[in-house]
Specification:
The structure is a single chain. By secondary structure, the chain is mainly beta. It is 12% helix and 39% strand. It has one helix and eleven strands, in the order H-E-E-E-E-E-E-E-E-E-E-E. The chain has one helix at residues 15-32; strands spanning 36-39, 43-45, 52-53, 63-67, 71-74, 77-80, 82-86, 93-97, 102-112, 121-124, 129-138. Strands 1, 3, 4, 6, 7, 9 and 11 form a seven-stranded mixed β-sheet that branches. A four-stranded parallel β-sheet has the order 2-5-8-10, with no helix packed on it.
Length: 146
Amino acid sequence: MSNIVVNFKIKKWSTSAKLLVLFAFLIANIQVFAVAKTWNVTTGNWNTPGNWSPSGVPLVGDDVTLPSGRSITVDVAAVCNSFTFGNTSDAACTITISGTNSLTVTGAITYVNPFGGNNDQTLAVAAGTLTCATIAYANTDAGTED
């Protein structure tokens, strides 16, 4: 009986090829795990997990909503997919980027019903940095702008 030996040579992947595959996998999975995050306290810091519902600081793929009558202070280099001022009542909502911190929104910042009543929707940047793809205004009331 003879033994047959098969010799396979496995070509090594270059480091850049490995990194490219890893990057593609991570990017593909960001949207799979994206979460709709809602600010659930009256006022506080972005980087506090308990200030969000569901609990946890938003990640790059997450869609963030700031309800009426609430204020957020961005106290880190914050990221999210979209940011919506969900103001549908006569209560102001504010996001303030403190110090030299930043907010990066890979999609749109949307102001819902920004033109009616007392519902000021403020985004204060000061010495910080704001980066976003677009800013949109959605007038959801049937009234006139003041």
